[in-house]
Amino acid sequence: MTEKKAIIETGWNFDNSYARLPESFFSRFNPTPVRSPKLIILNDPLATSLGLNVQALQSNDGVADLAGNQIPEGALPLAQAYAGHQFGHFNLLGDGRALLLGEQITPLGERVDIQLKGAGKTPYSRRGDGRAALGPMLREYIISEAMYALGIATTRSLAVVSTGELVIRETNLPGAILTRVAASHLRVGTFQFVSNWGTEEDLRALADYTLQRHFPEVDADVNRYLFLLQEVIKRQAVLIAKWQLVGFIHGVMNTDNMAISGETIDYGPCAFMDAYDPATVFSSIDIHGRYAYGNQPPIAAWNLARFAETLLPLLHDNKEQAIELAQDAISDFSALYHRNWLKGMRAKLGIFNEELQDESLIEGLLSMMQKYGADYTNTFRALTFDKPEDTVLVGTTEFDQWHDLWQARLGRQQEPKDSSHQLMRSSNPALIPRNHRVEDALEAAVQQGDYSVMERLLAVLSNPFAHTPEQSEYATLPAQSTCAYRTFCGT
Ligand SMILES: Nc1ncnc2c1ncn2[C@@H]1O[C@H](COP(=O)(O)OP(=O)(O)OP(=O)(O)O)[C@@H](O)[C@H]1O
């Protein structure tokens, strides 16, 4: 009897709804094969939840899929066209180094984009090489997965494959491809592209597609395009509030990096704030602080206004009335954002009910943190565990006074102290991806080929609210302040 070798199916289950949109929205294009692909990291739980077989993905065939060296059955690779305001300047862009393989239909019936980032040149590459370097792709993997564990809507990372080829940047760097998973890659910039270069029919097709994909609950008797605008605004209000609450700085909030789904997208120059300061900027290219921590909410509103402009022809036949509808919707953003932020801040301080003075209590703490350069994450953590001695604020009379006010505030609510502690524990992460920890992990990986540092970091980051001793170790600040820390994008 001859033994049959069992073939394990990878589990790709593609549908390609985006490819059914007007042809001008994208370019069908295949990935450019790479010399010697090697699997660096695979996200096993994510693969399983997508209906993919981990063992099959680890095999030569699986790695060839993730490297773009072969096209999985049912995939229809394409580069999406989009435009965007980059630092306020409008440009025609598009996937210059990413290719959408297709939409994976998961065992739960959900539809997610599977995209290879760094898969080679596309018609939108302009002068770029279509490639990505290993360090930045691992960085995207680490931070996006940390954001997911923090409960923040985000694109996810399925795998990183090294290519065996070098990419030429300031120096030669090892190349890599990231497999990104997203609810979709529809961006504010996608609408800007169609609004500028398409017909009204194209715009309606895009808006209808987006509604069907992300907001299928839309009622038949409402203005569906106004509903789309309002829902996108709501999702962004939730998202940006969550960023602010954990001290996340995106770094490059261009309109092409604002996802219609409400997920965080593009982990280029992002980083987490250490000492609390609204003016914090990490990105080396953000010279004027346009995307500083404290500017993120108004910048989100600005981006949403650009989104609203694209929808004007669909909102109402009468231009004036369309503008009025759009303006009303946009003006809701700051109140929506503020409500989400305040709710989150109350939770961070163990407060369940609402009092008018809560905001001044919160502002009081934040301004003390700013004055004394207190670490944002660790201060809330210290308060969570009644360990104010762990913050630099202790010893100042301002802090003692503030602490009394806070305790009195907690005393005025009906909840037992234990419940407040529970709420704080689940609202204040024990740790965030500290810049120096991320850099250490990347250095070991890229310079020495040692992935163990990154794997340990990913393990502690996967459960940020556990408050274990190991996490405390990872929460320590670097010996020197990281204020001078700079991130770079476009690699
Ligand atoms: N090496 C490259 N080759 C070709 N195009 C590139 C390259 N790097 C960036 N681009 C393109 O430049 C534009 C802006 O780059 P940005 O760094 O914001 O995007 P990205 O990180 O490649 O993609 P995404 O926003 O999908 O995460 C995008 O259109 C992107 O495709």
From TrEMBL:
It catalyses: L-seryl-[protein] + UTP = O-(5'-uridylyl)-L-seryl-[protein] + diphosphate; L-tyrosyl-[protein] + ATP = O-(5'-adenylyl)-L-tyrosyl-[protein] + diphosphate; L-histidyl-[protein] + UTP = N(tele)-(5'-uridylyl)-L-histidyl-[protein] + diphosphate; L-threonyl-[protein] + ATP = 3-O-(5'-adenylyl)-L-threonyl-[protein] + diphosphate. ATP binds at G94, G96, R97, K117, D129, G130, R180, R187, D266. Keywords: ATP-binding, Magnesium, Manganese, Metal-binding, Nucleotide-binding, Nucleotidyltransferase, Transferase. Belongs to the SELO family. It is an enzyme of class 2 (transferase). Nucleotidyltransferase involved in the post-translational modification of proteins. It can catalyze the addition of adenosine monophosphate (AMP) or uridine monophosphate (UMP) to a protein, resulting in modifications known as AMPylation and UMPylation. This is Protein nucleotidyltransferase YdiU. The active site is at D256 (proton acceptor). It comes from Paenibacillus sedimenti. Pfam families: SelO. It comes from the Bacteria. NCBIfam families: PRK00029.1. The lineage of its organism: Bacteria, Bacillati, Bacillota, Bacilli, Bacillales. Its cofactor is Mg(2+); Mn(2+).
